[in-house]
Amino acid sequence: MKKSDTPLYLSLPLIMLFVYTALSKLLAPEVFRKAMLNQPLPEAFSLLLVWLLPLAELAVAGLLLLPSLRKWGFATASLLMTGFTGYVSLILWGYFGWVPCSCGGMLEQLSWEQHLGVNLLFWVLSLYGLYTTQKSTTALLKL
Predict the structure, then answer these.
(1) Does the model's pTM come out above 0.85?
(2) How confident is the model at residue 103 (pLDDT cuts 50, 70, 90)?
């Protein structure tokens, strides 16, 4: 494996995660809509997120697929994972007063603690991917 391939290999699990989660939402929109309406968010915002989240997840996957935009994909993935991880943390700390229903797909089988662990793993992966793309961009600028 060449060092220049590192961002590609770091992006693959993130692409799979974001495509999987987006498709699970888009293929069962009514299930996702009901789950979003159970969240401790204003109803109008929850309904906006029903379409915004899967589209954002697909956009991030698209950015990560393209080498010229991969840095932006890692940056956006880092932001999304920060938000998702923060939200799960607030749930675990009892901030909302109740535990909303869990995510769909494979993540609904996890406890909230396990969900936090998965989110942290993907958050670190996205940050490391961003670091490697920044590092390679900086190296190219020095040439």
Answers:
(1) yes
(2) low
